[in-house]
Amino acid sequence: MSVGSSATADVSGAVTRAVVEEFLAARVAGDTGRLVEIFAERVDWVLAENPGVPWIRPRSTAAECAAQAVELAEHTVPEDARVSVDAFLVDGADAVLTGWVSGTVRATGKSFEGPFALRLTVGGGRITRHHLYEDGLAVAEACAA
After folding, report:
1. C-alpha separations of 24 from 3, 111, 136, 140 in Å
2. Cα angle 62-82-145, degrees, rounded to a multiple of 5
3. pTM for this structure?
């Protein structure tokens, strides 16, 4: 991989950090209207398919991506949700966050927890890539009756 080869390489780290911070604030606030504005019209969305988890499905539009936060809140117990960020790295248009996530599935009362990594790319002041890597097995097991 060559440095600067990305089509969005012209985005400064400061712009990327600001957009990602806006994204995080909107997620915490549950502000789907703002999330729709933050996501690009088309998003390269990756979250490993997990048929037993109702909020995990393919997405590609700003509205679909923003709706994931609502669907997650509908299927989990909000007061049990925890996310901690251990690292927030920015390199031009790209940001990577790593940390730990935990929660409880509303329908089963079962909990899940594990590490995560989130890679975001910013282009034109909006998020164009959202790749989330998490312990999908732990989430699926918590969703199973």
Report:
1. 27, 23, 21, 24
2. 85
3. 0.88
